């Protein structure tokens, strides 16, 4: 088979014959701040997985977007003297821009929680939970972190402050709200965890959520008084309340697929995607990627909500760590927030994708500094991959009369196992190991000398080097798609390309 590189619409040369539906969604970032490298990490990790599955021949659906309701967004809009919708419109565009900046999968679905269909889906979801007897109104008092948009118990606090947002003052809520009967689903959740031992990745995060559920569940508030906080999805049949932001936002994972198709206006082009990509109760298919601070919401709250609404659960929850900067948590007050756009503008998209894939742990916290980034860029991209491509293709251009015919070689199990387990760093390590091996092979076989003494023997050796470069390129494709395209273009034209990664001082 001739190796054909993807161009939108994507077609994969690595088909395994069985076409499967693959659905992956990120969380939705709040639109109360500029995109930072933490969200870039999540979306790039997800994008690599989606591209990999597309290459395997799977039918993919990739979802991300923006979470646009809630108190902190409403307050931020007021601070800037803007209408809330206008404010969210402006910030949503900044996150949409990441699609081009990070070279994300072309058919990426971008949902906004202010979309009319999403609002209707959230209201339908509410009605189904209410019909099942799982929503009731009552008075309550609680401590609340505006940064998390979550209720906090004393055990959640460190010195009276939220562990995740220590600079924000804990607020107090004392009002009548609607509650979801979370406590009702303790045993069903525990049984699901038992039946599906790979439901949460990695294992230690799965153990964490099991312990949380085993300790007992408390019903949680799912509405706010409209007179206090008017920015949100209206509660069905109660004009005094709007939906709590978490209840509303979680539903995006299925509303983006067109659910529930309950009227003529709810039949978009993706009709039928819900059953295909989210799956069935017997065979769930939806995979969610989220940060470690959202494990309760994703792996417990959302799953109970789905049970209440009579819908399939998620198939799997993949939990990643945070990016710290110089050993400290990113914070505006510390002035250490890393702008992924600025890095892309200086070093290129694939340079950032490379670092996030290889030098950031898929599940644990990782540290970022520009010094580490530059060192990795120069050593592994400029001097490593870039130099290798130049060496091989210079030999090919000089000594081969026609381009080498390239056929697809199946991915090695070391590579596929790593990506199947969401271990992007191991997949990248394996790929760069092959890069180093090919570089060493050039040094040991000295084709530039052989071709002078024996032209035919030298050409055979150079052709072999080009094929091995094409094999490396196959593994680069989901990780560094633009670079991969440049390499295969060079191979197919039998020309040394322009410098792929210029060295940075």
What layout of secondary structure does this protein have?
Blueprint: E1 21-25, H1 37-55, E2 59-66, H2 71-79, H3 84-96, H4 98-101, E3 109-112, H5 116-131, E4 135-145, E5 150-152, E6 157-158, E7 161-162, E8 171-180, H6 186-195, E9 200-201, H7 203-214, E10 220-221, E11 223-225, E12 241-243, H8 245-250, H9 252-255, H10 273-278, E13 286-291, H11 295-309, E14 316-320, E15 323-325, E16 328-329, H12 340-347, H13 349-358, E17 366-368, H14 370-399, H15 413-420, H16 424-445, H17 447-453, H18 455-476, H19 481-493
Parallel strand pairs: 1-2, 1-13, 2-3, 9-14, 13-14, 15-17
Antiparallel strand pairs: 4-5, 4-8, 6-7, 8-10, 11-12, 15-16
Helix pairs in contact: 2-3, 6-7, 7-11, 12-13, 13-16, 14-16, 14-18, 15-16, 16-18, 17-18, 18-19
Detailed description of the structure:
The chain has 505 residues and is α/β, with parallel strands linked by helices. 46% of the residues lie in helices and 15% in strands. The protein has helices spanning 37-55, 71-79, 84-96, 98-101, 116-131, 186-195, 203-214, 245-250, 252-255, 273-278, 295-309, 340-347, 349-358, 370-399, 413-420, 424-445, 447-453, 455-476, 481-493; strands spanning 21-25, 59-66, 109-112, 135-145, 150-152, 157-158, 161-162, 171-180, 200-201, 220-221, 223-225, 241-243, 286-291, 316-320, 323-325, 328-329, 366-368. The protein has a 6-stranded parallel β-sheet, sandwiched between helices. Strands 5-4-8-10 form a 4-stranded antiparallel β-sheet. Strands 16-15-17 form a 3-stranded mixed β-sheet. Strand 1, helix 1 and strand 2 (59-66) form a beta-alpha-beta unit. Helix 7 (203-214) crosses helix 11, helix 12 (340-347) crosses helix 13 (349-358) and helix 14 (370-399) runs antiparallel to helix 18. The longest helix has 30 residues, at 370-399. The chain is elongated and about 90 Å long.
């Amino acid at each position: 088979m001739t190796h054909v590189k993807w161009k939108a619409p994507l077609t994969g040369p690595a088909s395994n014959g069985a076409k499967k539906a693959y659905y992956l969604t990120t969380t939705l970032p709040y639109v109360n701040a500029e995109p930072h490298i933490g969200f870039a990490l999540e979306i790039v990790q997800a994008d690599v997985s989606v591209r990999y599955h597309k290459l395997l021949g799977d039918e993919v659906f990739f979802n991300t977007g923006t979470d646009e309701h809630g108190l902190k967004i409403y307050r931020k809009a007021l601070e800037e003297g803007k209408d809330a919708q206008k404010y969210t419109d402006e910030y949503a565009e900044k996150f949409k821009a990441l699609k081009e900046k990070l070279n994300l999968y072309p058919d990426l679905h971008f949902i906004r929680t202010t979309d009319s269909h999403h609002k209707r889906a959230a209201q339908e979801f509410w009605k189904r939970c209410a019909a099942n007897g799982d929503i009731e109104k009552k008075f309550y008092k609680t401590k609340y972190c505006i940064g998390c948009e979550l209720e906090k118990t004393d055990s959640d606090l460190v010195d009276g402050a939220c562990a995740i947002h220590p600079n924000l003052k804990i607020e107090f809520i004392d009002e009548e709200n609607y509650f979801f009967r979370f406590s009702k689903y303790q045993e069903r959740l525990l049984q699901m965890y038992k039946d599906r031992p790979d439901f949460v990745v990695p294992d230690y995060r799965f153990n964490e959520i099991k312990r949380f559920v085993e300790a007992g569940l408390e019903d949680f508030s799912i509405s706010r008084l409209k007179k206090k906080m008017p920015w949100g999805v209206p509660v069905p049949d109660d004009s005094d309340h709007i939906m709590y932001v978490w209840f509303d936002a979680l539903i995006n994972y299925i509303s983006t697929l067109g659910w529930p198709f309950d009227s003529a206006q709810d039949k978009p082009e993706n009709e039928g995607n819900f059953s295909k990509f989210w799956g069935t109760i017997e065979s769930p298919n939806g995979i969610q990627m989220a940060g470690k601070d959202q494990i309760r919401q994703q792996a417990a709250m959302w799953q109970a909500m789905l049970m209440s609404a009579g819908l399939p659960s998620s198939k799997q929850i993949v939990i990643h760590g945070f990016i710290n900067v110089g050993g400290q948590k990113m914070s505006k007050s510390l002035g250490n927030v890393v702008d992924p756009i600025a890095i892309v503008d200086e070093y290129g998209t694939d340079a950032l994708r490379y670092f996030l894939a290889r030098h950031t742990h898929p599940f644990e916290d990782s540290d970022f500094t520009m010094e580490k980034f530059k060192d990795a860029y120069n050593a592994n991209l400029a001097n490593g991959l870039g130099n290798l491509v130049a060496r091989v293709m210079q030999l090919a251009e000089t000594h081969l009369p026609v381009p080498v015919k390239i056929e697809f070689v199946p991915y090695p199990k070391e590579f596929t196992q790593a990506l199947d387990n969401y271990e992007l760093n191991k997949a990248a390590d394996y790929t760069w190991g092959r890069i180093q091996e090919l570089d060493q092979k050039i040094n040991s076989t000295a084709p530039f000398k052989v071709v002078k003494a024996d032209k035919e023997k030298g050409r055979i050796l150079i052709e072999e080097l080009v094929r091995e470069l094409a094999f490396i390129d196959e593994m680069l494709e989901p990780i560094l798609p633009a670079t991969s395209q440049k390499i295969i273009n060079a191979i197919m034209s039998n020309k040394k390309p322009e410098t792929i990664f210029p060295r940075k001082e």
